[in-house]
Every structure is written in structure tokens, then in C-alpha cells.
Amino acid sequence: MKSYHDIAGDGGSDVIGQVVAKRAQIAESLADVRHMVAIGSGKGGVGKSTLTMQLAQALRAGGSRVAILDADLNGPTQARLGGLRTAPVVPGPRGIVPPKTANGIGVVSMGALFPESEAVDFDSVARGDSYVWRATREFSAFGDLLAGVGWGALDFLLVDLPPGPERTFQYAEFLGAAAAFVLVTIPSDVSRGVVSRAVAAMRKTPNRVLGYVENMSGYFCGGCDVVRPLFPVASPVVDLGIPRLGAVPFDPELAAACDRGATLADARRPALRAIHAVAAEVARLLEVRA
Amino acid sequence: MKFLCVLCDQPMKLVAMAPPDRGALSIVYECPACAHRVAMLTNPLETQVVTSLGVQLGPGSGDVAKCPFSGMVQEMAAGAPGTPADAAPAAITWASAALERLQRIPDFVRPMARSGIEQYARERGIAEIDEAVLDHAKDFFGM
Q1: In CATH, what is the architecture of A35-287?
Q2: Residue A204 in contact with residue A173, Cβ under 8 Å?
Q3: So what's the ipTM on this one?
Q4: pLDDT one-digit tens code per residue, A153-164
Q5: Nearest-by-CA chain B residue for A127
Q6: Interface contact A97-B12, CB threshold 8 A
Q7: Listed residue (A129, A6, A10) closest to B57, CA to CA
Q8: H-helix or E-strand containing B19?
């Protein structure tokens, strides 16, 4: 009697063929993207999204063509950070035309589609079982976004990932080896411990991990013009085993600007100087093959 | 998933699929050698798991993999402040090329795209949306 592998195709629906076709659409949509960089962490609340937008701003300030895809479908923030919460969706010749920030960063985020008062809710014919299928549905929707946007020619496509070491790993598998990763932590040992798990998970993928950014690395007091410690220094510090790309202090004024969908004009502030240095290092590393 | 006619040792072919019934699917397979037919009946959870891949099942099953947020979109539209039912906005038509563009974007973005562009057109007294209108909208919104 024939076994599964003796029979070509699946009898009619060609489910695998459809999935392969979707992958081809994604590849075609990203054909003119030079570098895809996923910003992840493993830990939530460490400032991934803010850092993603500010890295995009720094890269854009350097003359690069930059766009952001908000992969956090359930807690999207990039539309707000980019000041694009009410941006309309315009169908272009090659898919959605990405709405742009005032300085030309394309931003695609579910936050522009659904108001913040709404939980993102997938249709289901089987209520009460979403834990079984939800992740699959989310990746399908994420793939639709990757394939359905006219990204055009970009130097950098930054992908803002949702939290969770397992999610970081899953997105690495989904995006494939072409996506480089930057991980974000805060100085606390708790955070470094979780990010360490994400680093361990990433070792099982072919993706290049450029390094990590230590966010909230001190607190910038604008009144005193100094950076003061924000977290106690643990001893010994959890070694993440990947390069540190930079350390960004917490700046309340930058946080307030981000909430307004803006950034700060004064590039001399320590946080922005640090972010620009990280952006330059990311760009440099991407030009050097691993 | 594949189906094998054990008697003929032949893979069976999908020949028909009934419309979804309360989340359940009925998919009929036939052996090309002996014409014996069997039906695969899925429960709602099984249907949900497969359609979560974002794929179409069988011929003419477009409804199964439609916008994954249609319930949410309908709720938002029903709760939106705005036009009373007896003051329906003027109808807007879409030229075929513009409609093709709309069809190329993801299902779950399409309702927002359609309503946003139609509002843009309505505000400008435009009765038909063509590619030029879409391009103007793109420029107008600074994209």
C-alpha cells in the first residue's frame, strides 16, 4: 500500500503549494530591500519598539531609505511612534503604499488599522480554542503584510518583534537567514537572563545576531546634564555572549516625544548620540559579511 | 493530508466541497480508478487550524480564508459614530484597474483601504475611483 510520501500533491487543495507560493510572494516583495534587521529581545518592556523607531530615525538621518514593519500584531506601537495612527491605507501598483513619517520613514503597523481601544481579534469558528491556532494565524497575517506591501527599494527594513524568547526564535525561522537580529535588554539581571535565553534560542537558527543594545542604561537628568544609574549593577553580570552594540540612557524627554509620535531635534542628547552610534555600528556590521 | 483508496492503492482526488456549515467543512474525495467516494468532515477546530495557514481549501472555497478580522471590522463599523442609516453616503464606484490594486493588498487591510479611499473621493466629489485617484491620494497623504 502506498505511503504518504509515495503520493505527489495533496489531493486537491495544494495547501503546501499555496504556502510555497506565499513565500515566493514575500521574496518578491522584499527583492529590493538590502538589509532586513529584526529588533527583538525575549523580554517585554525593554524599549524594543522605541529603539526601533529611533534607530530608523538615525539611519534615515544618515541618508538611508528606511521602513519599519511592526510585527507585534497584538500590541502594535509603531503607528503611534511614527505619528501615523490615522494614516489611511492606499493600494499602490505593488501592494499597500507604506505611510511615511514626516522625514520619510515608511511604517506599516496594525496600529494604523485598529484603534488602541480595540483588542486585535481574529475571526474564529471555534471559540475558546485560540491557543491552538492563534500563533499560526498571526504568522499568516504577518506573511500577508510582508508580501502585500510595496516596500520598494530600501536600505533597511526594520522589523519590530513582539516579546518572548520563543517568538524571537519563531520570527527568525519565518524571516529566514536573510534577517539579521539586534536584541535589546535593560541592565537588570532579570532582563539579561531572559535575553540570554533568546540568544540561546537564536543559536539554533542560521540568522546573524549582530549584538545587543543595553537600553535604559542609566537615567539622563536634563537638569544636571549627567547620566545617573537607573538599575543596580549585578555581580557577576549575566554574559550574553554576543557583542554589545551600545548603551542608551533613559531620557524622559525622548520618551515624551515618542508618545507624541515625534523625536527630539537635539541630537547632542546622550540618548540620541548613543542611538546614532548603534545605528552606525549596525550599518557597518551589515556591510561586513559574517 | 492525503486520501488513499486502499482497494485500488490509488490516491483519491478532491472532487467537491460543500459550503462551510457552522465552521464544519465537508470535502468529497473520489478514487480515479474505481470512482468510490468518501467525505472528510471537519469539526470547527480542525477547520480553524487549517485555515489559520491563510490557505484556500478546495475549489470555490474563497469564503473560508477571507479577511481574518471581518468580525472585528463589522463591530467597529457598527459602533462608529457617523452616518445614520437613512442618510447613506453617495455610492462610489471603482474602475477595474483600481479594483485590481485593491484586490492585491491583504484581505484584512482591504476594508480599511476601501472606506478610507472612498471617504477621500467623497470629500472631493469624485464618483469613480481609478488609478489616478489612488495616486493623488498617495501624494496627498505624503506617501
Answers
A1: 3-Layer(aba) Sandwich (3.40)
A2: no
A3: 0.75
A4: 999 999 999 998
A5: B45
A6: no
A7: A10
A8: strand B13-21
